[in-house]
Amino acid sequence: MNEAPTRPVLRYHGGKWLLADWIVSHFHELSNADHEALLATLKQLRGMVVLSGYASEIYESALQGWERFERASNAAGARARMEVLWLSPSCAAAVSGRLEFA
Predict the structure, then answer these.
(1) Most buried residue among 6, 61, 63, 77 by CB atoms closer than 10 A?
(2) Residue 1: pLDDT above 60?
(3) pTM for this structure?
(4) Which helix (H) or strand (E) holds 87?
(5) Phi/psi at 18 (5° precision)
(6) ∠ at Cα 72 (74, 51), nearest 5°?
(7) How far is the CA of 56 from the CAs of 7, 36, 47, 79, 82, in angstroms?
């Protein structure tokens, strides 16, 4: 997965939900440790990376230096949530000024 790409590569990852009471009761998802391992792996990839998910302390801390776009949304049960799109530094440089997250 860390091989040098021969052409530009873009990887998109839709982050799984962070654990919350309403999620634990309805879904089997990633643990917080799983999220941390995923983020560590994504940060080491050589190609461009786009990651989507919800705002969280784990992601904010791990993805410092990544471009961040956010949008208010409603999750299950009409709960207000903040959806976030993170772009790795190489991806942000490639799309600079050409991306709008609406």
Answers:
(1) 63
(2) no
(3) 0.70
(4) strand 79-87
(5) -75, 150
(6) 100
(7) 33, 12, 24, 15, 9
